[in-house]
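Predict the assembly for these two chains.
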Amino acid sequence: MHTIVTGFKQIATVLLFPSQRIIQAMDRSNPRELWEYTLTQVELSISPANFNTWFRNSFIHKIGEDGVIYIGIPSQFFKDWYLKKFHTLLLKIFRDISFEFRNIEYVIVKDERRKAAPRETKSVPGAMELPLNEFYINKSDNLNPRYTFDTFVIGSFNSLAYAAAQAALEHPGIIYNPLFVYGDTGRGKTHLIQAIGNHFKKQYPGRKVYYLTSEKFTVDYTDSVQAGTANRFKDKYRQYDLLIMDDVQFLSKKEKTEEELFHLFNALHDANKQIIFSSDRSPAAIPDIAERLKGRLASGMTVDIGEPDPESRMAIIRKKSASHGILLSEEVVEYVATSVSGSIRELEGMVNSIICHAQARGSTPNISEVRQSIRSFMRPQKNISVKNVVDRVASFYGIDEESIYEKTRRREVVRPRQVIMYLLREDFSISYPTIGTKIGGRDHTTVIHSCEKIKKEIVVDNELAKEIQNIRTLLV
Amino acid sequence: MNISINKKIFSEAVHKASRFSERKTGTLPILSSILILSSDEGIKMRATNLEIGIDLKVEGESKSHGVAAVPATVLGQIAGSLSGDGNVTLEHTGELVSFNSGTGKSLIKTIPYEDFPSIPFPENPKNRIVLPGVLLQSLLSSIVSCASASTVRPELASVYLSVEGGVLTAVATDSFRLAEKKVPLSQKGTQGKFLIPAKNAADIAQTLPDEDVIVSFDEHQVAFVSTKGMIVSRLTNATYPDYRQIIPKESIVEASVLRKDFELALKRSSIFSDSFQKVKLTFDPKKNALSLYSRNADIGESTETLPAKVEGNALEISFNHHYLSAALGLTQAESLSFCAAGPGRPLIIKGLGDTSLLYLVSPMNQ
């Protein structure tokens, strides 16, 4: 150790002039530049083998505001050795650069962060991977890496929200602060705001992002109050450069939590830290929420995500199926996009079910197969005639259609008749009296009784449930 | 330093310690050496490559104390060529160690030992469990082959160990298959989880003694301590995926077959497998049979039909045969159970009567 330090001194005096110039040209707050300069100095003082072994995998993790430099190292082996052998040397180099640097701490960092450019994975031909990738959630920022802008479909319904997100990413904390995104369930709010978080992380590696739901915030707050660590709670949330809070409408009526959010908002907003909220309704329409918080929620940019238009829905279906490696024909995409008018989440559910069927069969599905596989997502068409239903059910049970209308109480007729009434009521919402008159002029109480009977039996009788399921597919 | 050690004990100790020395060139020479110490605590051998380190106690007689660092490859080659009974003596004078095996005498150049790194110990050894080394050996050595060989995803190139509710669970996956093994612990209390790099886990499994081992861990490292010495490994500092999510909860068909039937049938089928190593499994509940089919355009094709107890729906599903045969090494059970959740979904393999193992293998694209 002793020899290392003296050796360094000699070299340092010789190099004083050029190194002074480098020091002046260097950006001291940039960890990478600082580390590169430090390495050039260290390299002069120790043997190449020593240098390769101990310094190749290290870097400056961050520079603390109190003048402490955090050096990231791979393992405990390194920590002990740095403390023992290199601490004085490094401290001297840092002090020569600036007296602001007071101390050095060594932290053992995550393996992912030390990785250089990723190499190609060895792929096993033919074998499918277990879907492990979808189950990583980054613990430090809570973001789900699956949500990115690459998988985000932009259409006329969300282009404004997307543009606002991009602007907020470009000048975080300045232009649209807070950014408030609202829209009905399943429109892609969470996807958008998480994508902002993931992109922010990539764009500004040193800064901190945190994603949470308002429910988590509430729980966290009440926990901290109970544990008497409210101050730590405050500090925890104030350190983030980007805070994303999902579903703020759930804060309504939680006065203390609202107050806490109010203070947190002020603290972050004053420090020009970006805040993003999402909700299922506009700030003004959230009931039972303090006026002053309402005003603040709306004070930045408020954008809504409307209902996706058919073109966007088609784009979403294509993107979703492509991500699973299946190409759907135009016909199929159009059919799926138009047949269900639900949220994007339902749309994705449908695509998933089509993909699942396709994988089971091992071929790209055609239109009739798709019709088959998404039947469960659709309510039967309502404009079907009673006669048609009677017809199908009678033929399903193999009995004469006429006997349904007759006043007979033969067992083989009674059951189908009840099933017909049940279906007409449940699936086609026809009134009890109408059903009664159409099925051979029966009293509406008879109809009610039949419907209730089937409803009860369906729960215990699997056979019956299966029969009705089969009949339903016949009716579509 | 002047020490005398039984030949057999010496060979074994060198063999164990040299696993932990650095094999790559271009690093610090001291890392590719074994440090031999003789002090009041007895004779010890140390080696480390900064990922993992060992501090091994060696039985022997010490005439005078001292320290010397000797290149691991040289010691390893000498240890490999020793024969017969008797002792070897090592005497350290100046820059040389004179090695006397009774019949021959060699002078080995040493490396300055001052640069030998210290081997760290977990800061908070409160997290600790005790279990027999034999158990840990078989647990690690059987499961480690299922971990990923590529280091692109460091968490998958690791063995995941979790201690919870008095059970030690070890998991390894390379994202094509996954093995989970459980071992009950004698004491409850301790909780925690950590990731050991698979490469280190394999070395640990080879080196652990059979007797009780204390495993203690903190955020960054794990130590295995026994009366024979100590092994310390760094931990993979990454998050393990929530693997339980991918284990299918329901199944459409379940088959049980005799292990030896399956083993031989799989061996024969793999001869005929194609370049994708594909073997097709067919579950036939009507005939109560499980059959294996493979076909190679150049060699031919083969069908093996095994008597089995099959319950559920008929199913055809294909796998890489290497991944199927890997399950055999994980359990000693005489019968195996195969649980399929449907086409395109992972298959669960268990040993009948062996609740410790769960093996999950992903099928091939149809």
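Chain B touches chain A through 57 residues (CB under 8 Å). Residues 82 and 253 of chain B are 57 Å apart (CA to CA).
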